Amino acid sequence: MDTVPTICSTDRPNGKPLSKVTIVGSGQVGMACAFSLVTQGITDEVALVDMVKDKLAGEVMDLQQGSVFTPGVKIYGSTDYSVTKDSKICVITAGARQKEGESRLQLIEKNVQILKQTIPQLLKYSPNAILLLVTNPVDVLTYCAWKISGRPVGTVIGTGTSLDTGRLKFLIAEKINISPKCVHIWIIGEHGDSSVPVWSRLQIGGVNLQELNHPSGISEEKSLEELHKAVVNSAYDIIKLKGYTSWAIGLNVADICRTILHNSRRIHAVTTLVQGFYGVAEEVFASLPCVLDTSGISNVIPLEVNDDEKEKFLQATNTLYEVQQSTGL
Ligand SMILES: NC(=O)c1ccc[n+]([C@@H]2O[C@H](COP(=O)([O-])OP(=O)(O)OC[C@H]3O[C@@H](n4cnc5c(N)ncnc54)[C@H](O)[C@@H]3O)[C@@H](O)[C@H]2O)c1
Ligand SMILES: O=C1C[C@](c2ccsc2)(c2cccc(Nc3ccc(F)cc3)n2)NC(=O)[C@H]1Sc1ccccc1Cl
Protein backbone atom coordinates (compact mmCIF):
# COMPACT_ATOMS: atom_id res chain seq x y z
CA MET A 1 0.00 0.00 0.00
CA ASP A 2 1.41 3.46 -0.93
CA THR A 3 2.45 5.50 2.14
CA VAL A 4 0.19 8.48 2.69
CA PRO A 5 2.27 11.63 1.87
CA THR A 6 3.03 13.74 4.92
CA ILE A 7 0.73 16.74 4.63
CA CYS A 8 1.24 18.29 8.01
CA SER A 9 4.73 17.66 9.25
CA THR A 10 5.67 19.04 12.61
CA ASP A 11 9.29 18.85 11.47
CA ARG A 12 11.05 22.16 11.08
CA PRO A 13 13.10 23.21 8.03
CA ASN A 14 16.81 22.58 8.99
CA GLY A 15 15.55 21.62 12.46
CA LYS A 16 15.22 25.13 13.90
CA PRO A 17 12.15 27.35 14.32
CA LEU A 18 12.08 30.40 12.03
CA SER A 19 11.15 32.75 14.88
CA LYS A 20 10.30 31.63 18.38
CA VAL A 21 9.48 33.52 21.55
CA THR A 22 9.59 31.97 25.01
CA ILE A 23 7.48 33.45 27.78
CA VAL A 24 8.50 32.67 31.35
CA GLY A 25 5.44 32.92 33.62
CA SER A 26 1.98 31.88 32.50
CA GLY A 27 0.25 34.35 34.79
CA GLN A 28 -1.93 37.30 33.85
CA VAL A 29 0.85 39.23 32.09
CA GLY A 30 2.53 36.20 30.50
CA MET A 31 -0.71 34.98 28.97
CA ALA A 32 -1.57 38.46 27.70
CA CYS A 33 1.85 38.52 26.01
CA ALA A 34 1.22 35.08 24.48
CA PHE A 35 -2.29 36.01 23.35
CA SER A 36 -1.01 39.23 21.73
CA LEU A 37 1.83 37.44 19.91
CA VAL A 38 -0.44 34.61 18.70
CA THR A 39 -3.41 36.68 17.56
CA GLN A 40 -1.15 39.05 15.61
CA GLY A 41 0.95 36.25 14.15
CA ILE A 42 4.14 38.06 15.18
CA THR A 43 6.15 34.85 15.63
CA ASP A 44 6.01 31.24 14.38
CA GLU A 45 6.27 29.56 17.77
CA VAL A 46 5.45 30.50 21.36
CA ALA A 47 6.80 28.40 24.22
CA LEU A 48 5.51 28.92 27.75
CA VAL A 49 7.23 27.87 30.96
CA ASP A 50 6.06 28.17 34.55
CA MET A 51 6.66 26.40 37.85
CA VAL A 52 2.94 25.72 38.45
CA LYS A 53 2.28 22.75 36.15
CA ASP A 54 -1.53 22.56 36.04
CA LYS A 55 -2.13 26.30 35.47
CA LEU A 56 0.50 26.22 32.69
CA ALA A 57 -1.05 23.12 31.07
CA GLY A 58 -4.52 24.65 31.20
CA GLU A 59 -3.39 27.94 29.68
CA VAL A 60 -1.46 26.19 26.87
CA MET A 61 -4.38 23.90 26.02
CA ASP A 62 -6.86 26.79 26.07
CA LEU A 63 -4.74 28.98 23.77
CA GLN A 64 -3.92 26.05 21.42
CA GLN A 65 -7.63 25.41 20.93
CA GLY A 66 -8.05 28.86 19.43
CA SER A 67 -5.59 28.00 16.65
CA VAL A 68 -8.19 27.70 13.94
CA PHE A 69 -9.05 31.39 14.55
CA THR A 70 -5.48 32.73 14.54
CA PRO A 71 -2.68 33.16 11.95
CA GLY A 72 -1.18 29.76 12.81
CA VAL A 73 1.39 30.01 15.59
CA LYS A 74 2.69 26.82 17.17
CA ILE A 75 2.01 26.97 20.93
CA TYR A 76 3.44 24.64 23.56
CA GLY A 77 4.66 24.67 27.13
CA SER A 78 6.35 22.73 29.89
CA THR A 79 7.92 23.08 33.31
CA ASP A 80 11.04 21.67 31.58
CA TYR A 81 13.17 24.45 30.04
CA SER A 82 14.22 22.23 27.11
CA VAL A 83 10.93 23.37 25.56
CA THR A 84 12.47 26.85 25.16
CA LYS A 85 15.24 25.63 22.79
CA ASP A 86 16.24 27.99 19.94
CA SER A 87 14.22 31.01 21.14
CA LYS A 88 15.04 34.38 19.55
CA ILE A 89 13.49 36.27 22.50
CA CYS A 90 12.82 35.15 26.09
CA VAL A 91 10.19 37.32 27.79
CA ILE A 92 10.41 37.17 31.60
CA THR A 93 7.13 37.85 33.40
CA ALA A 94 7.71 35.41 36.26
CA GLY A 95 7.45 37.12 39.60
CA ALA A 96 6.57 36.68 43.23
CA ARG A 97 3.40 38.31 44.50
CA GLN A 98 4.08 41.13 46.97
CA LYS A 99 2.91 39.91 50.37
CA GLU A 100 1.24 42.12 53.03
CA GLY A 101 3.94 44.10 54.85
CA GLU A 102 6.70 42.85 52.54
CA SER A 103 9.22 45.56 51.71
CA ARG A 104 10.15 46.48 48.14
CA LEU A 105 13.69 45.22 48.78
CA GLN A 106 12.34 41.86 50.02
CA LEU A 107 10.26 41.55 46.87
CA ILE A 108 13.26 42.45 44.74
CA GLU A 109 15.32 39.75 46.47
CA LYS A 110 12.64 37.15 45.72
CA ASN A 111 12.45 38.21 42.08
CA VAL A 112 16.25 38.20 41.78
CA GLN A 113 16.21 34.58 43.01
CA ILE A 114 13.70 33.78 40.25
CA LEU A 115 16.08 35.35 37.69
CA LYS A 116 18.98 33.28 39.08
CA GLN A 117 16.85 30.13 38.60
CA THR A 118 15.50 30.93 35.15
CA ILE A 119 18.16 32.82 33.16
CA PRO A 120 20.87 30.10 33.21
CA GLN A 121 18.25 27.58 32.03
CA LEU A 122 17.04 29.88 29.24
CA LEU A 123 20.57 30.58 27.98
CA LYS A 124 21.48 26.88 28.16
CA TYR A 125 18.89 26.19 25.42
CA SER A 126 19.01 29.56 23.62
CA PRO A 127 22.51 31.01 24.19
CA ASN A 128 21.96 33.90 21.80
CA ALA A 129 18.45 34.86 22.88
CA ILE A 130 17.47 38.41 23.68
CA LEU A 131 16.11 38.69 27.24
CA LEU A 132 13.09 40.98 27.62
CA LEU A 133 12.29 41.76 31.28
CA VAL A 134 8.73 42.65 32.32
CA THR A 135 8.74 41.63 36.01
CA ASN A 136 8.80 44.53 38.43
CA PRO A 137 10.60 46.51 39.51
CA VAL A 138 11.57 46.19 35.89
CA ASP A 139 14.50 48.64 35.72
CA VAL A 140 16.35 47.10 38.68
CA LEU A 141 15.59 43.55 37.50
CA THR A 142 16.86 44.33 33.99
CA TYR A 143 20.20 45.38 35.55
CA CYS A 144 20.18 42.17 37.60
CA ALA A 145 19.35 40.06 34.54
CA TRP A 146 22.26 41.64 32.67
CA LYS A 147 24.66 40.84 35.51
CA ILE A 148 23.33 37.27 35.92
CA SER A 149 23.34 36.55 32.17
CA GLY A 150 26.78 37.94 31.34
CA ARG A 151 25.32 38.84 27.93
CA PRO A 152 26.13 41.99 25.90
CA VAL A 153 24.25 45.04 27.22
CA GLY A 154 22.08 45.48 24.09
CA THR A 155 20.66 41.95 24.40
CA VAL A 156 19.15 42.40 27.89
CA ILE A 157 16.21 44.78 27.62
CA GLY A 158 13.45 45.90 30.01
CA THR A 159 9.99 47.07 28.97
CA GLY A 160 10.83 50.12 31.07
CA THR A 161 8.74 53.22 30.36
CA SER A 162 7.33 51.87 27.08
CA LEU A 163 4.02 51.11 28.81
CA ASP A 164 4.05 54.46 30.60
CA THR A 165 4.67 56.17 27.23
CA GLY A 166 1.89 54.18 25.54
CA ARG A 167 -0.59 55.04 28.29
CA LEU A 168 0.31 58.77 28.04
CA LYS A 169 -0.13 58.76 24.25
CA PHE A 170 -3.59 57.21 24.71
CA LEU A 171 -4.64 59.77 27.34
CA ILE A 172 -3.42 62.75 25.28
CA ALA A 173 -5.13 61.36 22.18
CA GLU A 174 -8.41 60.97 24.08
CA LYS A 175 -8.15 64.58 25.33
CA ILE A 176 -7.66 66.13 21.88
CA ASN A 177 -9.61 63.55 19.86
CA ILE A 178 -6.88 62.24 17.55
CA SER A 179 -5.23 58.85 16.99
CA PRO A 180 -2.63 57.93 19.67
CA LYS A 181 -0.33 57.11 16.75
CA CYS A 182 -0.12 60.86 15.99
CA VAL A 183 1.03 61.71 19.54
CA HIS A 184 4.82 61.86 19.73
CA ILE A 185 6.19 62.00 23.23
CA TRP A 186 8.62 60.00 25.40
CA ILE A 187 8.47 59.08 29.05
CA ILE A 188 12.00 58.25 30.28
CA GLY A 189 13.81 57.29 33.49
CA GLU A 190 12.23 54.91 36.00
CA HIS A 191 9.14 52.92 35.09
CA GLY A 192 6.15 53.61 37.31
CA ASP A 193 5.34 56.37 39.80
CA SER A 194 8.56 58.40 39.29
CA SER A 195 8.72 58.36 35.49
CA VAL A 196 9.74 61.53 33.60
CA PRO A 197 7.53 62.81 30.73
CA VAL A 198 9.61 64.84 28.24
CA TRP A 199 6.98 67.55 27.67
CA SER A 200 9.54 69.77 25.93
CA ARG A 201 9.55 67.35 22.98
CA LEU A 202 5.79 66.70 22.75
CA GLN A 203 4.52 66.95 19.18
CA ILE A 204 1.08 66.27 17.78
CA GLY A 205 1.39 65.28 14.13
CA GLY A 206 4.66 67.20 13.88
CA VAL A 207 3.33 70.36 15.59
CA ASN A 208 5.15 71.42 18.75
CA LEU A 209 3.10 71.67 21.94
CA GLN A 210 3.81 75.39 22.25
CA GLU A 211 2.38 76.07 18.76
CA LEU A 212 -0.69 73.94 19.41
CA ASN A 213 -3.46 76.29 20.55
CA HIS A 214 -5.83 73.42 21.14
CA PRO A 215 -9.19 74.43 22.73
CA SER A 216 -8.76 71.65 25.32
CA GLY A 217 -6.00 73.70 26.99
CA ILE A 218 -3.65 70.73 26.80
CA SER A 219 -0.65 73.05 26.46
CA GLU A 220 -1.14 74.47 29.97
CA GLU A 221 1.30 73.14 32.59
CA LYS A 222 -1.50 72.10 34.96
CA SER A 223 -3.07 70.01 32.23
CA LEU A 224 0.23 68.26 31.48
CA GLU A 225 0.81 67.45 35.16
CA GLU A 226 -2.71 66.02 35.35
CA LEU A 227 -2.04 63.84 32.33
CA HIS A 228 1.11 62.35 33.91
CA LYS A 229 -0.76 61.76 37.17
CA ALA A 230 -3.45 59.98 35.14
CA VAL A 231 -0.83 57.61 33.69
CA VAL A 232 0.17 56.55 37.20
CA ASN A 233 -3.33 56.58 38.67
CA SER A 234 -4.78 54.51 35.82
CA ALA A 235 -2.47 51.63 36.75
CA TYR A 236 -3.71 51.72 40.36
CA ASP A 237 -7.31 52.16 39.18
CA ILE A 238 -7.06 49.07 36.97
CA ILE A 239 -5.64 47.09 39.90
CA LYS A 240 -8.56 48.24 42.06
CA LEU A 241 -11.09 47.33 39.37
CA LYS A 242 -9.78 43.97 38.06
CA GLY A 243 -6.99 43.05 40.48
CA TYR A 244 -4.16 43.08 37.94
CA THR A 245 -3.18 44.65 34.61
CA SER A 246 -2.51 42.62 31.51
CA TRP A 247 -3.79 43.71 28.10
CA ALA A 248 -1.77 46.91 27.61
CA ILE A 249 1.50 45.34 28.79
CA GLY A 250 0.83 42.23 26.68
CA LEU A 251 0.25 44.31 23.56
CA ASN A 252 3.31 46.42 24.41
CA VAL A 253 5.54 43.33 24.74
CA ALA A 254 4.22 41.95 21.44
CA ASP A 255 4.97 45.28 19.72
CA ILE A 256 8.56 45.22 21.03
CA CYS A 257 8.95 41.59 19.87
CA ARG A 258 7.63 42.51 16.42
CA THR A 259 10.24 45.27 16.03
CA ILE A 260 13.05 42.91 17.07
CA LEU A 261 11.94 39.86 15.04
CA HIS A 262 11.14 41.88 11.90
CA ASN A 263 14.36 43.93 12.20
CA SER A 264 12.20 47.07 11.87
CA ARG A 265 14.58 49.45 13.69
CA ARG A 266 11.61 51.21 15.31
CA ILE A 267 12.22 53.21 18.49
CA HIS A 268 10.81 52.14 21.90
CA ALA A 269 11.36 53.60 25.39
CA VAL A 270 13.04 50.59 27.01
CA THR A 271 15.38 49.87 29.91
CA THR A 272 19.09 49.77 29.13
CA LEU A 273 22.44 50.98 30.47
CA VAL A 274 22.19 54.80 30.61
CA GLN A 275 25.73 55.47 31.92
CA GLY A 276 27.11 58.51 30.09
CA PHE A 277 23.73 60.07 29.26
CA TYR A 278 22.84 63.44 30.88
CA GLY A 279 25.90 63.12 33.11
CA VAL A 280 25.05 59.70 34.62
CA ALA A 281 28.40 58.46 35.94
CA GLU A 282 27.34 55.08 37.37
CA GLU A 283 26.52 51.74 35.75
CA VAL A 284 22.73 52.13 36.05
CA PHE A 285 19.76 50.85 34.04
CA ALA A 286 16.79 53.10 33.19
CA SER A 287 14.66 53.92 30.17
CA LEU A 288 15.58 55.99 27.11
CA PRO A 289 14.29 55.81 23.51
CA CYS A 290 16.19 52.97 21.81
CA VAL A 291 16.40 51.66 18.24
CA LEU A 292 15.56 47.93 18.26
CA ASP A 293 16.49 45.32 15.66
CA THR A 294 17.38 41.61 15.55
CA SER A 295 20.52 42.33 17.60
CA GLY A 296 18.43 43.91 20.40
CA ILE A 297 19.25 47.56 21.19
CA SER A 298 21.39 48.91 18.33
CA ASN A 299 21.30 52.61 19.34
CA VAL A 300 20.21 54.79 22.26
CA ILE A 301 18.66 58.06 21.10
CA PRO A 302 20.39 61.08 22.73
CA LEU A 303 17.05 62.86 23.31
CA GLU A 304 17.50 66.56 24.05
CA VAL A 305 15.71 67.41 27.32
CA ASN A 306 15.37 70.64 29.32
CA ASP A 307 17.07 71.26 32.68
CA ASP A 308 14.04 70.22 34.75
CA GLU A 309 13.63 66.95 32.82
CA LYS A 310 17.39 66.24 33.13
CA GLU A 311 17.27 66.86 36.89
CA LYS A 312 14.32 64.49 37.35
CA PHE A 313 16.05 61.84 35.21
CA LEU A 314 19.23 62.11 37.31
CA GLN A 315 17.22 61.88 40.55
CA ALA A 316 15.61 58.68 39.25
CA THR A 317 18.92 57.13 38.20
CA ASN A 318 20.46 57.97 41.58
CA THR A 319 17.63 56.11 43.32
CA LEU A 320 17.83 53.19 40.88
CA TYR A 321 21.60 52.96 41.34
CA GLU A 322 21.24 52.63 45.13
CA VAL A 323 18.64 49.86 44.76
CA GLN A 324 20.69 48.08 42.10
CA GLN A 325 23.76 48.14 44.36
CA SER A 326 21.69 46.76 47.25
CA THR A 327 21.12 43.55 45.26
CA GLY A 328 24.82 42.77 45.53
CA LEU A 329 25.08 41.99 41.79
N1 LIG B 1 6.79 46.38 33.42
C1 LIG B 1 5.50 46.66 33.34
O1 LIG B 1 5.07 47.66 32.73
C2 LIG B 1 4.52 45.73 34.00
C3 LIG B 1 3.14 45.87 33.81
C4 LIG B 1 2.29 44.97 34.47
C5 LIG B 1 2.80 43.99 35.29
N2 LIG B 1 4.15 43.89 35.42
C6 LIG B 1 4.78 42.88 36.26
O2 LIG B 1 4.66 41.59 35.67
C7 LIG B 1 4.86 40.62 36.70
C8 LIG B 1 3.85 39.51 36.54
O3 LIG B 1 2.58 40.01 36.80
P1 LIG B 1 1.33 38.99 36.73
O4 LIG B 1 0.11 39.81 36.98
O5 LIG B 1 1.43 38.15 35.52
O6 LIG B 1 1.62 38.06 38.01
P2 LIG B 1 1.09 36.56 38.23
O7 LIG B 1 1.30 36.25 39.66
O8 LIG B 1 -0.26 36.41 37.61
O9 LIG B 1 2.09 35.64 37.33
C9 LIG B 1 3.38 35.40 37.72
C10 LIG B 1 3.71 33.99 37.25
O10 LIG B 1 5.09 33.73 37.51
C11 LIG B 1 5.20 32.36 37.85
N3 LIG B 1 6.47 32.11 38.52
C12 LIG B 1 6.84 32.51 39.75
N4 LIG B 1 8.08 32.06 40.01
C13 LIG B 1 8.49 31.37 38.91
C14 LIG B 1 9.68 30.67 38.55
N5 LIG B 1 10.71 30.59 39.41
N6 LIG B 1 9.75 30.08 37.34
C15 LIG B 1 8.71 30.16 36.47
N7 LIG B 1 7.56 30.81 36.75
C16 LIG B 1 7.46 31.40 37.96
C17 LIG B 1 3.99 32.11 38.74
O11 LIG B 1 3.72 30.73 38.85
C18 LIG B 1 2.91 32.89 38.01
O12 LIG B 1 2.24 32.07 37.09
C19 LIG B 1 4.76 41.40 38.04
O13 LIG B 1 6.07 41.64 38.54
C20 LIG B 1 4.15 42.73 37.60
O14 LIG B 1 4.53 43.82 38.41
C21 LIG B 1 5.02 44.73 34.82
O1 LIG C 1 4.27 48.52 36.68
C1 LIG C 1 3.14 48.08 36.73
C2 LIG C 1 2.79 47.00 37.61
C3 LIG C 1 1.39 47.01 38.05
C4 LIG C 1 1.15 48.10 39.04
C5 LIG C 1 2.08 48.63 39.90
C6 LIG C 1 1.59 49.65 40.68
S1 LIG C 1 -0.02 49.89 40.34
C7 LIG C 1 -0.06 48.66 39.15
C8 LIG C 1 1.19 45.66 38.69
C9 LIG C 1 0.17 44.80 38.35
C10 LIG C 1 0.09 43.58 39.03
C11 LIG C 1 1.00 43.24 40.01
C12 LIG C 1 2.02 44.18 40.28
N1 LIG C 1 2.96 43.88 41.24
C13 LIG C 1 4.13 44.61 41.47
C14 LIG C 1 4.14 46.03 41.35
C15 LIG C 1 5.32 46.71 41.57
C16 LIG C 1 6.48 46.01 41.90
F1 LIG C 1 7.65 46.67 42.14
C17 LIG C 1 6.45 44.61 42.02
C18 LIG C 1 5.28 43.93 41.78
N2 LIG C 1 2.09 45.36 39.63
N3 LIG C 1 0.54 47.21 36.93
C19 LIG C 1 0.86 48.05 35.94
O2 LIG C 1 0.07 48.35 35.05
C20 LIG C 1 2.16 48.56 35.83
S2 LIG C 1 2.43 49.98 34.91
C21 LIG C 1 2.49 51.35 35.96
C22 LIG C 1 2.45 51.23 37.33
C23 LIG C 1 2.53 52.38 38.12
C24 LIG C 1 2.65 53.62 37.52
C25 LIG C 1 2.69 53.73 36.14
C26 LIG C 1 2.61 52.58 35.37
CL1 LIG C 1 2.66 52.69 33.65
What does this entry look like structurally?
With 329 residues, this protein is α/β, with parallel strands linked by helices. It has helices spanning 28-39, 53-64, 104-125, 138-149, 162-176, 221-242, 247-261, 307-326; strands at 20-24, 45-49, 74-77, 89-92, 130-133, 156-158, 183-184, 187-189, 195-197, 203-204, 207-208, 267-273, 285-293, 296-300. The strands form 4 sheets. The protein has a 6-stranded parallel beta sheet. Strands 7-10-11 form a 3-stranded antiparallel beta sheet. Strands 12-13-14 form a 3-stranded antiparallel beta sheet. β13 (285-293) and β14 (296-300) form a beta hairpin. α4 (138-149) crosses α8 (307-326) and α5 packs across α6. The longest helix has 22 residues, at 104-125. The chain is globular. Residues 6-11 have low confidence and may be disordered. Bound molecules: nicotinamide-adenine-dinucleotide and ligand D47. Residues 98, 107, 136-137, 163-164, 167, 192-193, 231-232, 235-236, 239, 244-245 line the site of the ligand O=C1C[C@](c2ccsc2)(c2cccc(Nc3ccc(F)cc3)n2)NC(=O)[C@H]1Sc1ccccc1Cl. Nicotinamide-adenine-dinucleotide binds at residues 24-30, 49-52, 93-95, 97, 114, 117-118, 134-136, 138, 159, 163, 191, 244-245, 249. InterPro entries: L-lactate/malate_DH (IPR001557), L-lactate_DH (IPR011304), L-lactate_DH_AS (IPR018177), Lactate/malate_DH_C (IPR022383), Lactate/malate_DH_N (IPR001236), Lactate_DH/Glyco_Ohase_4_C (IPR015955), NAD(P)-bd_dom_sf (IPR036291). It holds the Pfam family Ldh_1_C. It comes from Nesidiocoris tenuis. This is L-lactate dehydrogenase. Belongs to the LDH/MDH superfamily. LDH family.
